[in-house]
Amino acid sequence: MGYNVVVVGATGNVGHEMLNILAEREFPVDKIAAVASRRSLGTEVSFGDKTLKTQDLEQFDFKGWDIALFAIGSDATKEYAPKAAAAGCVVIDNSSLYRYDPDVPLIVPEVNADAVVGYSKKNIIANPNCSTAQLVVALKPLHDRAKIKRVVVATYQSVSGTGKEAIDELWNQTKGMYVPGQEVAPKVYPKQIAFNVIPHIDVFLDDGSTKEEWKMVAETKKILDKSIKLTATCVRVPVFVGHSEAVNIEFEDFIDEEEVRDILREAPGILVVDKREAGGYITPVECVGEYATFVSRIRQDSTIDNGVNLWIVSDNLRKGAALNAVQIAEVLGQRCLKKG
Ligand code: 2RA
């Protein structure tokens, strides 16, 4: 006996990956539906070796469906997630809409799977921001061993985090640099992204930080520990897929780099790639399509007491979105929606 699963936003980058990963991990599916906006009606999407025709979200009836993975914007989620939840279908939402709602669990299974039981308050579970997910997977095992006091993180976020238009902009702008007359002006981003980096993701807040940076603070506190002080600088870089993060951690107690490496090597969801030689570290192009959160450049920070530096890389469409959502569905099924 399996589950009746709906992927909402099935034609987007994350929606595609949700279908791919449900099939790859052989999630127990009885029925599967691919749903998207009316303009995508009838578009064919793959689910393993099957082909699904997308159905119209406006007409879709969620009654009789068990789990809906949502990968659409917050506005559409606001309209349709409550309808799905009211019809008895548990929503796992990748938008930011419900992440900060005290009645909605925000889950990274390797960190706080137990919190899934809170889904029943609104029949909704929130998926974290991509840059948060890979960070807390690495922080959790270290926090358990040597309580984290403060984290400073700089992110290097790929354009797929913005969406298809951004991928096209990077591609066309890069090509246009080499072909006179084919220059492509910035449209998705405020400045040129080809051969450039942009220290601005999402909107600016009154304190000068951006909402992306605020999300990392708020979500790390909700998922891991509200006592952790975190400051972030989120940067867009000319990479298609794969978010990277340079992370500085200050612990309450001393922990040496060897013990950090050993702990991370044993931690769920993590692969350590860490040799002090050319190529002995992970880079974004190597994480594409992988499930793992990769950690490299593990080293003591001798400028403070109890300090350690890390380099964390993961596929932002997978662990940063679709994989984490499917993992939540797995935990939900195993712990809360037992079938047969
Ligand atoms: C980004 N984290 O990278 C945001 C949304 N996916 O653009």
TrEMBL record:
Binding sites annotated in the UniProt record for NADP(+): T11, G12, N13, V14, R39, S40, S160, G161, N316
Protein name stated in the entry: Aspartate-semialdehyde dehydrogenase
Listed pathway(s): Amino-acid biosynthesis; L-methionine biosynthesis via de novo pathway; L-homoserine from L-aspartate: step 2/3; Amino-acid biosynthesis; L-lysine biosynthesis via DAP pathway; (S)-tetrahydrodipicolinate from L-aspartate: step 2/4; Amino-acid biosynthesis; L-threonine biosynthesis; L-threonine from L-aspartate: step 2/5
Subunit and partners: Homodimer.
Reaction catalysis annotation: L-aspartate 4-semialdehyde + phosphate + NADP(+) = 4-phospho-L-aspartate + NADPH + H(+)
Enzyme Commission code: 1.2.1.11
Annotated ranges, domain Semialdehyde dehydrogenase NAD-binding: 4-119
Single GO biological process annotation from the record: isoleucine biosynthetic process
Source organism: Ketogulonicigenium vulgare (strain WSH-001)
GO MF annotation list: aspartate-semialdehyde dehydrogenase activity; NAD binding; NADP binding; protein dimerization activity
Tagged with keyword Ribosomal protein: no
Family per record: Belongs to the aspartate-semialdehyde dehydrogenase family.
Coiled-coil residue spans: none
Active site residues of this protein: C130 (acyl-thioester intermediate), H243 (proton acceptor)
CDD domains in alphabetical order: ASADH_C_bac_euk_like, VcASADH2_like_N
Annotated binding of phosphate, by residue: R99
Binding-site list for substrate: Q157, R236
UniProt superkingdom: Bacteria
Record key words, sorted: Amino-acid biosynthesis, Diaminopimelate biosynthesis, Lysine biosynthesis, Methionine biosynthesis, NADP, Oxidoreductase, Threonine biosynthesis
Function: Catalyzes the NADPH-dependent formation of L-aspartate-semialdehyde (L-ASA) by the reductive dephosphorylation of L-aspartyl-4-phosphate.
